[in-house]
Amino acid sequence: MSYATRTQAIMNGKPVYTVPAKSVLNMSSGFRHKLLCDGPTFSAGSACGYSCAFCYVPDLMRKSPHMSGVAETHNDIVIRREGAVAALRRQLTFANGKPRYLDPADRRTIYASPLVDIAANPTLAAETTDACRTILHLTHWDVRLLSKSTLLQAVAENLAEYRDRVVYGVSTGTLDDGLARAFETGTPLVSKRLATLHWLQDEGFRTFGMICPSLPQVDYAAFAASMHAALRADRCEHVWGEILNARGDSMARTINALSAAGHNRESSDLAHVSTNADAWEDYSRQTFESHAALYRPGQLRFLQYVTKSSKPWWEARRGDGAILL
């Protein structure tokens, strides 16, 4: 019997499957190490409304029971967790309905979403809003939301009374709308999502930046400076940065997507660093150092997967914002 059930719905041009929402809340996520949360995360889905070539989730979910019986590839479907908000409420309360985590001193930050975009269409944005309202009502936690969607504005408007407890961020590794379109399918233009970030800042909402994934650059300093300005970093609490997270087929998918869209220099440069360890490390270090030169102490959080040989260099730069993974 298939674990996932195909529905009649279509979201973002993709067929929608549902799986039982046995668990929405993860109290001990690895995202703690990335400083995006203090352990807790929540996710109402297992396959995204968007399709990004660089996404590592398809490889992560390859053997998941949520893909059992699904004929399509992970990138070609949406998977929702049926009854997600109700399941979240159950995880946040005891059997008698009383909150589990209502200690006023418990001011942890919970992050969404480790698997899917939280606002890829109005239905999902509304579901995220309901989930956040549940968390904010039953705990004293802060909520960190990351999205590529302009609908983040609608989420913020609907949670305006909690503006001091929700931090909003949009992610992009480039400021070039055309380049982003090459490896992101279905996402709003970079310029539009940055406009949403600016709206959030102008309206007094808490914000953070996410420069991810960033490709090899011709001029790293110029790239970092343009990102710093575009994010209006002085209005962001923190800014995360990361090069391409190479997992499974994500590297090959991104190289092929860039080439197919005619971005031959970017495709060639990424292919080169992907097969040359020294070039990969140089790409990582130049990206990091260009960002580190611009941010106030403690603001930059640069995520870097290290090897035995590279670890000492990155260890020495923890104080400048390096986070070793």
Compact description:
The protein is α/β, with parallel strands linked by helices and 325 residues long.
Q: How would you describe what is shown here?
A:
The chain has a domain at 148-324. The model has no long low-confidence stretch (mean pLDDT 96). The chain has helices at residues 57-60, 84-92, 122-138, 152-158, 177-183, 190-202, 220-230, 250-260, 264-274, 277-292, 311-315, and strands spanning 5-11, 14-20, 25-26, 41-42, 45-47, 51-52, 78-82, 109-112, 142-147, 166-171, 184-185, 206-214, 239-243, 300-304, 322-324. A seven-stranded parallel β-sheet has the order 8-9-10-12-13-14-15. A four-stranded mixed β-sheet has the order 1-2-7-5, with no helix packed on it. A two-stranded antiparallel ribbon has the order 3-4. Helix 3 (122-138) packs parallel to helix 4 (152-158), helix 7 (220-230) packs across helix 10 and helix 8 (250-260) packs antiparallel against helix 9. 34% of the residues lie in helices and 21% in strands. It has 325 residues and is α/β, with parallel strands linked by helices.
